[in-house]
Amino acid sequence: MDNHTDSELLVMFRNPDTKHYAFNLLVRKYQERLYWQIRKIVINHDDADDVIQNTFLKVWGGLDNFREDSQLFTWLYRIATNEALTFLKKKRTKLLLPLVDVEQQLMRSFQGDPFIDGDSTALKLQKALLKLPEKQRLVFNMKYFEEMKYEEISEILGTSVGALKASFHHAVKKIEKFLEED
Amino acid sequence: MKSMKDKFNKKLPFKVPDGYFDNLPLRVQERIAANQAQNKYKGRWVTIRSQLAFAAGFAFMALLSYLGYYMVHPLITEKKPIKTDYVEIVSRTIYEFDDIDLFKAIEQKKRTDSLKEVYDEIPHRLYVRSSNCITIIDEKKEIKP
User: Fold this and answer.
1) Per-residue pLDDT tens over the stretch B52-96
2) Same domain assignment for residues A149 and A178
């Protein structure tokens, strides 16, 4: 089922008879990678679930106009990242919170979420990541966890490779400092 | 960086409910179907709304034109020359003006003008006459003794 290439999926999607089937295959192919990307940004499972559904809704609406200038996965990743960031922005506006308080709230969701492993050492890293500025956190997640190339990250975030390298370097330094203090 | 990799092994502390990824495609398809139905309703409402807006705009423009016409129109009629104002009539509508009307108007004007001249003349004549009378009386007085 997952053997279809992106081009094949796109051809099937453009055919009205196989549109829904192709989209189903596309969701199955990319859902996990996109979910984890979103989850690392919004932390809470219910929020991530909302965001990933919105992401696929946007993909459904925009896939007809996708011009294959970039890779399909890069395009999907960009939509997912933007949706997650928009979600956080809306949360901030809705609760009239400054940036720092949203991070505090995300930090609190580590305690209340039943889908978080509270004892793991990885939790420490996630808590340290929440202390980083949003952009550095994104770059760190993509580079460290997803092992993406800077060029790919650059295409997704619309930032130059040089700036991304600097962001990642600062992020690593800060995390190491946080962990030492902890 | 290397020490961090060794320490954390890139493990995430997150979990998902059992069977979450098996059900997600179906839930996404349901959301898309619900969204399409909602968009269809929204699309119909948008069409009706735009038609209503167009009709309201048209009615407003018609009302403006109507009011504008009846506000400007009296001003134009006020400026219309009165038929007795023959000089203006003659100068502006010489071709539309009837010769008989023109003749009558000129005669009327002459009559009024001559009357006006008479009325202007009366005080002068009276004055001259009275002064003449005084002169005569004075002359008579002079003769009397």
Assistant:
1) 898 999 999 999 888 888 777 765 555 555 556 666 656 665 566
2) yes
Q: pLDDT by residue (tens digit) across A66-109?
A: 887 788 999 999 999 999 999 988 887 776 666 556 677 777 77
3-state secondary structure of B14: strand
How far are the Cα atoms of A80, A81, A88, A117, A170 from residue A156, in angstroms, in the given order?
Answer: 10, 8, 18, 29, 20
Distance CA A6, CA A68 (A): 10
Cα A103 from Cα A87, distance rounded (Å) = 13
The alpha-carbon gap from A89 to the nearest alpha carbon of chain B, in Å, equals 22
Residue A109: inside a domain = no
Point out the residue among B1, B7, B28 whose CB comes nearest to the CB of A172.
Answer: B1
Smallest Cβ–Cβ distance between B13 and the set A31, A32, A123 belongs to: A123
- Decide: helix, strand or coil at residue A116: strand
CA distance A169 to chain B (A): 9
Number of domains in chain A: 2
Half-sphere exposure of A96 (CA within 13 A, CB side): 0
Calculate the average pLDDT of chain B.
77
User: Residue A114's closest CA among A46, A37, A51?
Assistant: A46
> What Å distances lie between residue B55 and A154, B48, B58, B69, CA to CA?
50, 11, 5, 21
For the full predicted model, state whether its pTM sits above 0.90: no
- Same domain as A129, residue A51: no
Which amino acid does the sequence have at A167?
A: S
Q: Which of A169, A135, A129 is nearest to A154 (CA)?
A: A135
Closest chain A CA to residue B20: A49
